[in-house]
Design a protein that fits this description.
Blueprint: E1 8-9, H1 11-14, E2 22-30, E3 41-43, E4 50-52, E5 58-63, E6 71-75, E7 82-85, E8 95-99, E9 106-107, E10 120-125, E11 131-132, E12 143-148, H2 152-156, E13 163-175, E14 180-189, E15 196-199, E16 205-209, E17 214-219, E18 226-227, E19 231-237, H3 241-257, E20 262-269, E21 272-279, E22 288-293, H4 296-301, E23 304-307, E24 315-317, E25 320-321, E26 323-328, E27 338-339, H5 348-363, E28 367-374, E29 377-388, E30 393-394, E31 401-402, H6 406-420, H7 446-450, H8 500-514, H9 518-530, E32 536-537, H10 567-570, E33 572-574, H11 576-588, H12 594-600, E34 619-622, E35 628-635, E36 640-646, E37 651-657, H13 667-674
Parallel strand pairs: 2-8
Antiparallel strand pairs: 1-21, 2-5, 3-4, 3-6, 6-7, 9-27, 10-26, 11-22, 12-19, 12-23, 13-17, 13-18, 13-22, 13-26, 14-15, 14-16, 14-19, 20-21, 22-25, 23-24, 28-29, 28-37, 29-30, 31-33, 32-33, 34-35, 35-36, 36-37
Helix pairs in contact: 5-13, 6-8, 6-9, 6-12
Length: about 675
């Protein structure tokens, strides 16, 4: 028998420091139970930087310099995903990452039609002509996937979809460890790439064995899981820190005994020269060899993909993994429920809720609200997930969420109120209303502030203290000292430069004109007249009934400081029902005349005549289907928001969530369900 063996690179084993790498350590816990999540997948998308958590949930991963600004992803079967920016990690401070359990509705399988004899079919590749070993002693999560689809002979024997998973087998060519572990996964076929896609089954099924060679079996009958088309069966090698240490020690011993098999050359790594050691090993190397068929005939008949780490890029390979899956035409008779999509209707309300639930399951979002109105009437709303995970408090329609930069859209109504009363000239210099504000090189107007054309800076993203502040300010005017002495970034009107600080200055303009505190003015002249009973400033000193907890990228509760410095630009609390009321007031209300509304929703222009796509506190334009839209979104490190108004479709949609994950929600998919494309 021909024995196939790959060259094993040992670069990361011996040259792991000195080239700007960052070691990140932490623990992955179940958010509900606070128990460790073993063998969670951790890594950077489409890279060879990835690992698995240890049995106690702990992890350690080396981050090369070029990935310092990337996002570290966490996932585990049965749990929602987490994406944590690298800036949340500190080299000397281990971080805890919380994963929330998925909450799919369970439904029993119902079989209809006449009773027929159960048929079973074995699909996959049984042949092998050697083995492959690819053990990385620094990273982990290597997986091999085989496309499973019926052959013509199976179809002739009566094979039809759907079928039910019964068992699977992986050929172990040779194992040189005391024991080894593999996790089996089942993946959709990505319709665009043909590569392994989303997981079909959320149970984590790991088999540990001490066998030296043979077929490693996985019993799948209890799943009663139906598959309705071709899929990938994926085998993920589970190696924790102890495993990788043992293998590394085995390599060292092997090289001492066989120095002639070690090849050394010099390579350039991240702009620096480094020594790389390549080992031409034999069948006695420490590790587990997986059976493969490396012939052209096998490659013509089957399709295999490999990825080196938990979130590595899938690559099609010629060596076909030796694995099979047995399926049956009928499920195991045991009354075990399976996870199915609860939405069985083509009604927009049903489809919209499913989109929201799927998004929550895929991102780890803890809690959210969403409301939709059509023609000034409620069309659909949902309150999903938890406002307080620790105390198991569910989100309700009255749960208060941070609305972030949607606060600008809310504050814009105060501007229009003052304009309609003749108290505010949008083109007058700021000092007309805030005399103490320092003069700049160029005059600045309220219109420029409201359209992000004034030249003021936004948050310094490299300094979290510029965003997370602990000082409390009694007024918007008092909070100006944060940035009042800053130099303008550009001549006002020259370009679009988004700035929440500019909108904080608008809060001071409102105070200067009215003689009232910004929050008091908004409550009296905007929120009360519009019936916005659940909208207020997020004053963390006061107990706010029904206020949601907020969660940062790691899943931990995190207030992220005192937001009194930016009420007008990003510091308000509200509900989606209040925000929809506000949208309908702009469409149908009498608070403002048409001229005032036109000012809000007309795109401003730079001095050279280019439209900015932003009016006064609102983005304006068209959605991807050509429908006219006024909108705003917002996010912080612990919350996210969307507000959309479709004036021609008479549609208003609001979305709020208690973590930053919600900023990635494609809210226009909800829009499409309620208007005709």
């Amino acid at each position: 028998m021909k024995r196939f063996m790959r060259i094993i690179p040992l670069f990361f084993l011996f040259a792991t420091t000195g080239f700007g790498q960052l070691i990140i350590k932490g623990t992955v816990l179940n958010q509900a139970t606070q128990q460790p999540v073993p063998y969670a997948n951790i890594g950077i998308l489409n890279s060879n930087v990835g690992t698995l958590s240890n049995p106690d949930g702990s992890f350690s991963i080396m981050i090369p310099q070029k990935h310092r600004k990337d996002i570290l992803h966490f996932s585990a079967l049965g749990f929602r995903k987490k994406a944590v920016p690298m800036r949340f990690f500190q080299p000397e401070k281990p971080l805890t990452v919380f994963l929330a359990e998925r909450t799919k509705t369970l439904h029993a399988i119902t079989i209809t039609g006449k009773k027929e004899r159960n048929q079973t079919f074995e699909l996959g590749n049984r042949s092998f002509r050697g083995g492959v070993l690819e053990t990385d002693t620094t990273y982990a999560g290597r997986s091999m996937a085989l496309l499973i689809k019926p052959k013509e002979a199976d179809v002739k024997k009566g094979f039809t979809f759907p079928v039910f998973l019964e068992k699977a087998s992986l050929r172990i060519f040779r194992n040189n460890l005391k024991s080894f572990r593999f996790r089996i996964r089942f993946n959709k076929v990505d319709p665009l790439t043909g590569q392994p896609g989303e997981d079909l089954v959320q149970q984590s099924m790991i088999v540990e064995s001490t066998m030296k060679n043979g077929w490693l079996a996985f019993d799948l009958s209890a799943l009663r899981y139906p598959v309705s088309g071709p899929f990938f069966v994926t085998f993920e090698q589970i190696t924790d820190l102890k495993d990788r240490t043992d293998i590394a020690d085995g390599y060292r011993k092997y090289m001492q005994e066989h120095p002639e098999r070690l090849k050394i050359d010099t390579v350039e790594f991240e702009g620096k020269k480094a020594v790389r050691q390549m080992l031409r090993g034999g069948i006695d190397l420490p590790g587990t060899f997986i059976g493969i068929a490396s012939s052209q005939a096998a490659a013509d008949q089957f399709t295999s993909y490999v990825r080196e780490t938990s979130f590595g890029e899938w690559k099609k390979v010629r060596g076909i993994v030796s694995a099979t899956v047995t399926v049956s035409s009928q499920p195991n008779p045991a009354p075990t429920p399976i996870s199915e999509k609860p939405c069985q209707s083509d009604q927009p309300e049903c489809l919209a809720e499913q989109l929201c639930r799927d998004f929550m399951d895929n991102t780890g979002l803890n809690g959210m609200q969403i409301s939709v109105s059509m023609a000034n009437k409620p069309a659909w709303s949902a309150a999903l997930g938890f406002a307080d995970v620790k105390n198991n408090i569910a989100v309700t329609d009255s749960t208060l969420f941070r609305i972030n930069s949607v606060s600008k859209a809310v504050t814009s109504l105060a501007l229009m109120n003052l304009v309609s009363e003749g108290k505010l000239d949008l083109d007058a210099p700021i000092q007309t209303y805030v005399p103490a504000f320092p003069l700049k090189k160029y005059p600045v107007t309220t219109r420029q502030l409201a359209g992000h054309l004034a030249g003021f800076r936004d948050y310094n993203e490299t300094d979290l203290s510029d965003f997370i502040r602990t000082e409390h300010f009694e007024s918007a005017t008092q909070a100006l000292r944060i940035f009042e002495n800053d130099t303008l970034l550009f001549k006002p009107g020259a370009t679009f430069g988004y700035s929440t600080f500019g909108w904080n200055l608008i809060g001071a303009v409102i105070e200067g004109i009215s003689g009232e505190n910004y929050l008091d003015y908004m409550a009296k002249h905007v929120w009360k007249p519009l019936g916005l009973q659940h909208t207020s400033g997020d004053d963390i000193r006061k107990k706010q009934p029904n206020r949601s907890k907020f969660y940062d990228a790691t899943g931990q509760e995190n207030e992220l400081g005192d937001w009194s410095y930016k009420y007008a630009g990003g510091g308000l609390l509200s509900t989606t029902q209040d925000l929809v009321k506000l949208g309908n007031a702009l469409l149908y209300g009498t608070l403002f005349d048409k001229k005032s509304k036109d000012i809000l929703f007309t795109s401003q222009r730079t001095t050279d005549g280019n439209e900015t796509g932003y009016g006064l506190g609102w983005y304006v334009g068209k959605d991807k289907n050509g429908h006219r839209i006024w909108h705003h979104q917002g996010d912080s490190f612990s919350s996210s928001s969307h507000l959309l108004i479709y004036p021609d479709d008479q549609l208003v949609i609001a979305f709020l969530a208690n973590s930053q994950d919600g900023v990635a929600f494609d809210i226009q998919k909800i829009s499409e369900l309620f208007y005709k494309k």
